[in-house]
Amino acid sequence: MIASTSQQSQTPASATPTITKTLHHQIVFIGGGSAGLTTASMLLKKNKSLDIAIIEPSHKQYYQPGWTMTGGGVFQIEDTVRDKKDFIPRQATWIADRVVKLDPDRNAVATKEGILVEYDYLIVCPGIQLDWHLIKGLKDAIGKNGVTSNYAPNYAPYTWELIKNFPGGNALFTFPNTPVKCGGAPQKVMYMADDTFRKLGVRDRTNVMFLTPATKMFAVPEYSAILDKVVAERGIDVKFRHNLKEIKGETKEAVFDVFDDSGAVVDEFTHKYDMIHVAPPQSAPDFIKQSPLAVSGSAYGWVDVDKYTLQHNRYPNIFSLGDASSLPTSKTAAAARKQAAIVAENLLAFIASQPLLHKYDGYTCCPLITGYGKTIMAEFDGYNGTVVSSFPLNPVKERWIMWMMKTTGLPWIYWNRMLKGEQFEGDYIKFMQWRQ
Ligand SMILES: Cc1cc2nc3c(=O)[nH]c(=O)nc-3n(C[C@H](O)[C@H](O)[C@H](O)COP(=O)(O)OP(=O)(O)OC[C@H]3O[C@@H](n4cnc5c(N)ncnc54)[C@H](O)[C@@H]3O)c2cc1C
What we know:
3 domains, NAD(P)/FAD-dependent oxidoreductase, FAD, globular, 9 helices, disordered N terminus, FAD/NAD(P)-binding domain, binds flavin-adenine dinucleotide, alpha/beta, 436 residues, sulfide:quinone oxidoreductase activity, oxidoreductase, eight-stranded mixed β-sheet, five-stranded parallel β-sheet
């Protein structure tokens, strides 16, 4: 492993840096996060002689699902982070820098520090961008005076501070008007908060509200129905068709657009908060949006790939997976793991001039914590919205064993198996998996 250095200069994503060095690698990854590390490890398990470079600026690797547990007081934030160097495969070259420009017509990318990296094949997985700026007042308000979010490691511990010291009042939880990573995360924290408020004895003087632009609790009808029961039993006030557009930090007010069934804004709703957990709007990173790789005409700017083969729709030597890709399924690490296996197989086939026979089926999983000791292991096929399970148990049920899986099993699997490119555990027990 060769690591080049990364410095913190302020080259904007759209500026073309002055090139001071040119490198060439057979396979180049943009992003060595959940998707990138898993795919690179899988490729090298299949063929150790591949020449792989991973362009990745961060020296930390986060287990992001753990931020929900941090916000709920189950994990410390330190439990969710490890050194990146320990997860970059030994045979790969790590370029510790940030891609700022893509030039797919010349098979090259440019980094912030002025390195031009040429490739034969490119795998694009730089994750998702958190667009805090799209909610007026949020950037100034967040991290203090009751405004928080589990979507960033610097705020997740503050979520728990707010919950465990809550004296009663209005506790608001919001969902944005864009696709997000882990669609369940904005409500998981709410159920843990609700449990804690009961334990503290403040729930009877607390108004717990979930405000979302959606018209149901979850995309898959079976999981949505069970969540309807959960919110009803807990006395949570759910407001559909409500999109957070402004935080007024000084008066502690949240302002929402209210939609009708056609999606037109018909009203404005302002509510006081004593604490508010915000899931920010999200999109592809700007350098992807501004590149020829993005889906044309889409404001989100996802990398435009075939939903089955994960190959780019216009540049056949480019593949994409994970949160930055256009794959029309729920964006999760669980989905990225299944996608990684498809990219590894199809890229090797493409290199060998063989047809791309491996197809991604839209699998994803969002373990829905519905309280301490309770989780619905919401696995589903995101392309058809149907319930699936990797376990011999009906997943449409709150279970203690799935809480144990969520808090103990899955983090272990992530660090010790997924990022190392090991096979999906469910494959070993296919014969006994629950079927609808
Ligand atoms: C609060 C929360 C809860 C979640 N809960 C779950 C859950 O329960 N289950 C689940 O499966 N998933 C969950 N997720 C989602 C999961 O973490 C992501 O879907 C997953 O990490 C996506 O992998 P990725 O590789 O696409 O992106 P990431 O893992 O975010 O990795 C992207 C990498 O690209 C790098 N990068 C960014 N820009 C550049 C650039 N310009 N050049 C080079 N590299 C770049 C970044 O540094 C990063 O390392 C949760 C996420 C959050 C925030």
